[in-house]
Design goal:
Length: 332
């Protein structure tokens, strides 16, 4: 393990500063004294307009220019490390891990098998069945006729995020129509109950610290009102998921607590990145971002500092940013 001063300022790339996880992580790192290079594919992303963040626009992860853009940034700005906050960038970054390491850039990335299990909801479903972790019944479009009549359903993209193109329905016929509209769809049994997220940090030895948040209000897939909770069974299920797909680093696990049902706790998905509401964990006492930086630079993670207080609330809102006049880039 590295023994340098934990408070030593670093130059860290944070990807996806147009979204809440990336922007909040960038601002938190700035408060800790680090220099932040924020990237996003949208030149109008709020993190690229935020004072104190070195802004760089790069190609989307699905563009053939992504790797070249990122490596050009690395060679020009010579960052010490990179933290990813965009799910669909992870496969590219795993492929680039060796190049980044040779350029002196620290990363904390899962294996490709973990990235696949987290990013593909059908692969995740299969992984959970194999590990006997309760998860919603899931079908592919050609299996619609196997769905029991009367099952409440959710049709969603197999590799989507942020609740985009997610639709609820009550019949197989409705699901069949929605599968024509939703890109690369899957169908899941709808789960009703108290929705939760778990902000987790998994050290390089596989030990996980878990902070549970009940999602009281969700907008566009992002928790905007939440409260920290204690639940032994939910914590146990979260650690089972992490172990099943060999997750590492910052992880977000989501599920439902269904009182009076069996199974009581059902896991719906996992993301190999920080969640949009991770600031609640910090407010509740979990030293999440500082410990992420420790792990990023091969220092020991202090799991004692990842304990938290239950009953802490977070309410997020849209803020107005005022910046100096500038030309508006063409995003078409």
């Amino acid at each position: 393990m590295e023994t340098s001063n934990p408070a030593e300022p670093r130059r860290i790339v944070v990807t996806g500063v147009g979204g809440a996880p990336g922007l909040d992580l960038a601002l938190t790192l700035r408060k800790l004294g680090h220099e932040v290079i924020g990237t996003d594919s949208n030149p109008l992303a709020p993190g690229l307009l935020t004072p104190g963040i070195s802004a760089r626009t790069i190609a989307r992860a699905d563009s053939p220019l992504f790797a070249a853009d990122l490596m050009e940034l690395v060679h020009n700005l010579k960052p010490d490390a990179l933290l990813c906050c965009v799910e669909n960038e992870l496969p590219q970054l795993v492929h680039l891990r060796g190049h980044l390491q040779r350029a002196g850039v620290r990363t904390w990335l899962p294996d490709m098998a973990t990235v696949t299990a987290a990013g593909d909801k059908w692969a995740f479903h299969r992984a959970m069945l194999g590990s006997r972790v309760p998860t919603p019944a899931t079908w592919l479009p050609d299996q619609i006729d196997e769905i029991p009549e009367g099952t409440e359903l959710v049709v969603k993209p197999r590799r989507g995020q942020g609740s985009k193109n997610v639709h609820f329905c009550r019949t197989r016929e409705q699901a069949r129509v929605l599968c024509e509209l939703v890109p690369d769809p899957i169908i899941q049994q709808r789960v009703l109950g108290a929705e939760f997220s778990a902000d987790c940090l998994v050290d390089r030895n596989g030990r996980a610290s878990v902070v549970l948040r009940r999602r009281l209000m969700v907008q566009a897939g992002m928790s905007v009102v939440a409260v920290t909770i204690d639940d032994v069974e939910a914590t146990k299920r979260v650690t089972e998921v992490i172990r099943a797909i060999r997750a590492t680093g910052p992880v977000d696990v989501q599920g439902f607590i269904t009182e009076g049902s069996d199974p009581r706790v059902v896991i719906t998905e996992i993301n190999s990145r920080l969640a949009a509401g991770f600031l609640l964990s910090e407010e509740a006492g979990a030293n999440l971002v500082e410990q992420i930086v420790n792990g990023l630079f091969q220092r020991a993670i202090d799991h004692r500092r990842l304990s938290y207080r239950s009953g802490t609330f977070l309410t997020k809102y849209v803020a107005v940013m005022s910046t100096e006049p500038r030309a508006v880039p063409d995003t078409a």
